[in-house]
Amino acid sequence: MSQATDSTTKRAERRPDKWKDDDVRGLSEPELLRYRSNLLGSDLRITNYGGGNTSAKVAMEDPLTRGKVDVLWVKGSGGDLGSMTLDGFATLYLEKLQALKALFRGREHEDEMVGYFPHCTFNLNPRATSIDTPVHCFVAHRHVDHMHADAIIAIAAAGNGERLTREIFGDAIGWVPWQRPGFDLGLKIGAASEGTSTVGLILGSHGLVTWADTSKACYETTLRVIQQAADWLTAHGRPEPFGPAVAPPRPEAERQALVAQLAPVLRGKLSPLAPKVMQYVDYAAVLEFVGSARCEELAARGTTCPDHFLRTKIRPLFVPFRPGHETVADLLPRLDALVTRYRDEYAAYYERGKRGDSPPMRDPYPVLVLVPGVGLLSFQKDKATARVAAEYMVNTINVIRWAEGVDTYQPISEQDAFDIEYWPLEEAKLQRLPKPKELEGRIALITGGAGGIGGAIARRLLTDGACVVLTDIDPAALQHAVSELGTAHGADRVRGIQGDVTSEASVRAWFAFTAREFGGLDVLVSNAGIASAAPVDETTLATWQRNVDILATGYFLVAREGYSLMKRQGRGGSIVFVGSKNALVASAGAAAYCTAKAAELHLARCLALEGAEHGIRVNVVNPDAVIRGSRIWSGSWRAERAASNRIEEDQVEEFYRQRSLLKRNVLPEDVAEAVAFFASERSSKSTGNIVNVDAGNVTAFPR
Ligand code: NAD
């Protein structure tokens, strides 16, 4: 993907003008701002994910004086331009904001200005305003966009950014050297916007500010400036800005297999302080970058856009690897040293950069890992953050390509980067975040996830913050469960893969899939099952075999693969078997089922014994008579149990209730509660244990 040198023929791809006058007819100024923001934010070439902000100064009636006042509508803190609605904007009295100049005591005190913003709130709007508010409020035009387009950041982060800006835009776009966003920068932007033909500014190492007097004109200006930058960079870029290719991409199937092997080991090494979830990215641009001669050197210069360092860390970890010439097994012995060096260098960076009021050092392990021939693996506290961090690395790669194509890629100094990463205002934001959920960063695989009990377990583990892979033999039911859970808990955290627990190949594929999708495994719930009933002398060999295959052999295959993945990952884990009261209690007319369930129970005990030294806990939850929601009970099992107990089928639920000591029905959620306990750290000192969830049954009391 080399850049062209022939400036007469090469243009960057178009960023189309999506503004439609028909769509905006009759819209108020705030609605026009929302429309414009959605258009800008929906194209990642215009602003990166969650990045950038927009504003409009709107004359409105003051609810107290009934007079007209100018109100700054500005994107609130957090949120995404592409999808935001009107309530995503903060509203502030413009005059009060501008009057804050009188309170400004200079750059060394600028953080205190943020505390004044809430005092300027218009109309009791609860939306907190962005710390970028000063970028907007002093500009002498009604509409302002602040975008993080890759093409602009390439200029902003080039060694000769100011010269390039002049060369590309003449006087139309000004230049402000890097400084941390804040009140002082806002004043400089305001001064630059007054009384000239300038339509915007490039903020060194940061992004673009553009302005106009109508929403439409502002949108058009923003688009035009970004397109002009992209066209110029494309036309003038030299070929192979990353150097020649030295590790071409491996074929897709091989890449997938390499990630499945590598990700759990890396995850184990990157998660000593908090468990991480992985996002794997192998876009063509990423593969080109990681396989290029200059990848290590360029990546070491750091990621772009300082406001994302909290998510990406200042630089990625480059893993020297020659797939095709060596295997993952060859690489593994080198990984410890690479990770340790990154961690130590991060700690040294913290020590060099820290100031009196710096927050304590955060997790020093890398987020972004670049592997030649394979791609980018991003490890973060949850799937969404890992995905977004990976997207920022893709932005960085675009920026490096363009900047190195025409000049040098030179992001801000280490101290400036540190001051952003450890900015007390950012720390305050982190402190305000809700406490992480119990299973945040954990990855769970549930067999039989499309069934009654499996579904309830999935809901529960998702509610507790885990990422969940559902497996099941029934593709339609599985798809339904995945889409329902994805809608309720966010598609990022739910995956499904079809297969049969009795097939070694299926089961292996499930765990490889889990490693590729999320990076590893912490919780394995072996639950897929069937039930059958017949007196011993009427039990066919096929029925016997089917019970043994699914309930005993199936549990073995699943446990063996999950167990070895956990071992490779090296951070312990929790395996939970959904057994049955019948694992403990013989039941007339169900010899095959009871025997297979008893085998499960004993397998769990053996695994608990072997797993202990690796921190892998293995426990069993024994349900009984979970009739509601269970697909087992909607099949022939219900009729067989009714016949065996000499009751009608519609009396089954009541029958089992009366049979229990507590006279209560057992629900799938009750089983899920016990599984959640064993999945969590709350049971960290329990292994080889059994919890019966049967509303009390004296014959099942474990002895
Ligand atoms: P369910 O039928 O609702 O769910 C079981 C799921 O396992 C189904 O979605 C099914 O498609 C899947 N499955 C079956 N065979 C499979 C195979 N070979 N490979 C992959 N997936 C397969 O039943 P449930 O009540 O939710 O049962 C879950 C577990 O709880 C089972 O192990 C069962 O023995 C156990 N259990 C249930 C009860 C009860 O009363 N429901 C009582 C004791 C134990």
SSE layout and pairing:
Blueprint: H1 21-24, H2 29-41, E1 53-61, E2 68-75, E3 89-93, H3 94-99, H4 133-137, E4 143-147, H5 150-156, H6 161-169, E5 173-176, H7 183-192, E6 200-203, E7 207-212, H8 215-236, H9 252-270, E8 277-281, H10 284-290, H11 295-300, H12 309-312, E9 317-318, H13 328-353, E10 368-371, E11 375-380, H14 383-406, H15 414-421, H16 424-432, E12 443-447, H17 452-463, E13 467-472, H18 475-489, E14 494-498, H19 504-518, E15 523-526, H20 541-569, E16 573-578, H21 591-611, E17 616-623, H22 636-644, H23 652-659, H24 668-679, E18 690-693
Parallel strand pairs: 5-6, 9-10, 12-13, 12-15, 13-14, 15-16, 16-17, 17-18
Antiparallel strand pairs: 1-2, 1-4, 2-3, 4-7, 6-7, 8-11, 10-11
Bound molecules: nicotinamide-adenine-dinucleotide (NAD).
Nicotinamide-adenine-dinucleotide binds at residues 447-448, 450-454, 472-474, 477, 500-502, 527-531, 550, 554, 578, 580, 623-626, 630-633.
Overview of the structural elements:
This protein folds into three domains: 21-236, L-fuculose-1-phosphate Aldolase, CATH 3.40.225.10; 252-432, 3-Layer(aba) Sandwich (L-fuculose-1-phosphate Aldolase); 443-625 and 667-696, NAD(P)-binding Rossmann-like Domain (Rossmann fold, 3-Layer(aba) Sandwich), CATH 3.40.50. The protein is of the alpha/beta class and 703 residues long. The protein contains 24 helices and 18 strands. Helix 9 (252-270) crosses helix 13, helix 13 crosses helix 15 (414-421) and helix 20 (541-569) packs parallel to helix 21. Bound molecules: nicotinamide-adenine-dinucleotide. Nicotinamide-adenine-dinucleotide is lined by residues 447-448, 450-454, 472-474, 477, 500-502, 527-531, 550, 554, 578, 580, 623-626, 630-633.
